[in-house]
Design goal:
With 179 residues, the chain is α+β, with helices and mostly antiparallel strands. Helix content is 20%, strand content 47%. β8 and β9 form a beta hairpin.
């Protein structure tokens, strides 16, 4: 093989690797609505309690994992873990998978929201759910405050018996700092 052929081969290989690295970097960078929402949700890191019932055993803990590419929302009832919702980007989409005590795992996708500060998810599909007549989380939304004082969390469960909607007003129970 001649020197010029080796040079061309090396140039092509380096170019391909460079494009692949740039594509990977672009998938974790950018300023898409999903990225902005994920970053906004990241400001929730810490512990939250219901505003109206400060003595409640319920604590919701937000934490990052996987080099801050995944956000965990862990519901605790006293010392016992109740449920878990995992948020992550998938290209230009923000997904949430809810691991429910009912044993199903609805996957929700961020939808466009017309209200500033609102991050809204709608049902996409689910695992371990025979049909949508079984009770499952069908939507989820957050109104994230600019000043970080009160977080409004709404969710809707859907079943053959109808719709069950709940709203939680949450306040920080810590400083919201990650180690």
């Amino acid at each position: 093989m001649s020197f010029s052929r080796i040079s061309v081969t090396c140039f092509v290989a380096i170019s391909i690797l460079s494009m692949a690295a740039h594509a990977t970097e672009a998938s974790f960078a950018g300023n898409s609505a999903a990225r902005q929402a994920f970053e906004k949700l990241g400001t929730l890191v810490g512990s939250w309690k219901p505003q109206d019932t400060p003595n409640s055993k319920l604590t919701i803990i937000f934490s990052h994992t996987a080099n801050k590419t995944v956000l965990l929302e862990t519901w605790m009832s006293g010392e016992r873990q109740h449920s878990l919702t995992v948020y992550h980007l998938d290209g230009e989409s923000l997904l949430a998978t809810h691991y429910c005590p009912q044993g199903n795992q609805p996957r929700l996708k961020m939808e466009a929201a017309k209200t500033i500060g609102l991050i809204k998810f709608g049902f996409m599909d689910a695992t371990n759910l025979a049909n949508t007549e079984q009770s499952h989380q069908h939507s989820l939304s957050f109104t994230v405050p600019k000043n970080g004082t009160v977080l409004l969390r709404n969710e809707t469960y859907l079943s053959g018996e109808g719709i069950d909607t709940s709203e939680l007003k949450l306040v920080r129970s810590d400083k919201g700092m990650e180690p």
